[in-house]
Amino acid sequence: MGGGPATASRPAKMKVTFMKLSARNQLKGRIVEIRKGATTAHVRIDIGGQIVTASITTESADALKLAVGQTAYAIIKASSVMVGVD
């Protein structure tokens, strides 16, 4: 998937890799807010009217070039899920 001529957005030797994940809960949405702190960024993703918040490193948020309005996936992999009721 790499190769091809260099462009302003893709350097000449950049290789594009697509990754498959074992996590089955991959929820597509749109970033509605990013709050960056010194070490942690909180990314809020709207998934069909429900907001999911992810806490990631600020370094990762910068490396991913996250922006409000961008399409993103909340990928959830957990060893346990709790249930609560009213």
Mean pLDDT: 85
Instruction: Please report the number of helical segments.
Output: 1
Order of strands in the sheet with most strands: 3-2-1-4
Outline the low-pLDDT stretches: none
Distance between the termini: 50 Å
* CA radius of gyration: 16 Å
Largest sheet: 4 strands, antiparallel
Structural class: mainly beta
Helical residue percent?
under 10%
Specify the overall morphology: globular
Number of strands: 4
How much beta, percentage-wise? 35-45%
SSE order = EEEHE
State the main characteristics:
four-stranded antiparallel sheet; 1 helix; about 90 residues; mainly beta
Would you give an account of this structure?
- With 86 residues, the chain is mostly beta strands.
- Helices cover 7% and strands 40% of the residues.
- The chain is built from one helix and four strands.
- It has a four-stranded antiparallel β-sheet.
- The radius of gyration is 16 Å and the shape is globular.
- The chain starts with 24 loop residues before the first strand and ends in a 10-residue tail after the last strand.
- 2% of the residues are buried.
- The model has no long low-confidence stretch (mean pLDDT 85).
Task: Give the helix/strand layout.
Blueprint: E1 25-36, E2 40-47, E3 50-57, H1 58-63, E4 71-76
Short overview:
This protein is mainly beta and 86 residues long.
